[in-house]
Amino acid sequence: MLTLKQITENTEQVIAGLEKKHFENARAAIDEVIAVDKRRREAQQALDQNLSEAKKMASQIGMLMKQGKKDEAEQAKAAVSELKEKNKQLEAEKAAAETEVSTLLCQIPNIPYDEVPEGGRAEDNRVVKSNLRECVAGDTVGNWTTVPANSEAKVPHWELAKKYNLIDLDLGVKITGAGFPVYIGKGAQLQRALINFFLDEARKSGYTEIMPPTVVNAASGYGTGQLPDKEGQMYHCEVDDLYLIPTAEVPVTNIYRDVILDEKDLPIKNCAYTQCFRREAGSYGKEVRGLNRLHEFSKIEIVRIDKPSHSRESHKEMLEHVEGLLKKLELPYRILLLCGGDQSFTSAICYDFEVYSEAQERWLEVSSVSNFDTYQANRLKCRYRRSEDKKIELCHTLNGSALALPRIVAAILENNQTPDGIRMPKVLVPYLGFEIID
Length: 438
Hints:
It is a single chain. The chain is an alpha+beta fold. It contains 13 helices and 21 strands. The protein has helices spanning 4-9, 11-20, 26-66, 70-106, 157-163, 169-175, 186-204, 218-224, 249-253, 311-328, 375-380, 405-415, 429-432; strands spanning 126-130, 140-141, 144-145, 167-168, 182-183, 208-210, 215-217, 236-237, 242-244, 259-262, 268-277, 296-306, 333-337, 349-357, 362-371, 382-385, 392-394, 396-404, 417-418, 421-423, 436-437. The strands form 6 sheets. It has an 8-stranded mixed β-sheet. A 3-stranded antiparallel β-sheet has the order 7-9-8. Strands 10-16-17 form a 3-stranded mixed β-sheet. Helix 3 packs antiparallel against helix 4 (70-106).
């Protein structure tokens, strides 16, 4: 969450940032935080003054008794007792104000960096890089070869999955419900190959692999900002008050909740493979068919904890890592800088990676790579001790998908179909043990 220091020292800048993020009633929300915090500070000041006065009067009571001034001593005792009662009220007022400030801050999103473009829709996102261009049959673009523009084999992945017995969507409905596919045979092998490939690449890039729980408590959800913002999208185990994770970001980042790190240990680089669970809003059409939108899916996440002066460089390195994966998979991709209104609640800057679906003739999001600045760290109380002066400051947290599997699988199937079958990217063949699905 935003810090009170940010809000009180840079009020107009914070309001402008919230408006850029299309947060409604930004000024009113910030004014309310400032007003409640003023009540807290006033209660604290009165409490400090009363405590000082009570201490001073208490020290005089013994002296008055020694001097035989019993009546005056009793009056002083009564005054101290009265101050103690007032202090109880002030303590309650201060605690209530602190709770209210914390609740208000949790409802206010992060503010975007200056370079984040204006806009409130996906159409306002800025394409910063793409390896897709118009091409003729068999032309090679970068590390990938397109399906010929005049090809008749533009079959969507849900039909290919059925044809080659790779994924059974109906069986998932039988076992659980819509959005829970069953992977079969070479379809399951492809899933496992991608998981291992992504994890191996992350380890080569210096990430330490974590195998975290896939359920978390409410404190973990609040720590990374999924709660209360995304509560309706998370599966909740009500009896135990636990939540199924929407991404490994939640348990992995919460490893560092209430922790003070040493500057020399930063950046911390973790990766994790988990199943992810999201209660997506119900909708219909080809945009959500097949693997396009699921309630349960596999994903490899990369997470970094860094110091503020280096987090921009960490973000750049993470973007290069994800781009490298897409190049090695020989997929057509583009990178978008999200506009303020299309960013997540917690991010300060976010880039999305999308792969092109030849059969569906549209872009599919496969990764978001975000820098959260101090927003998550403030909620988590994730801090580090500076080497030079031992001063303790908030860390920066970053995370990204590297990568989410469903739409990667969809793009591999759709973009690599040939008359002989579906050819696998060369980098996956050692993991698969076969070159083609036929």
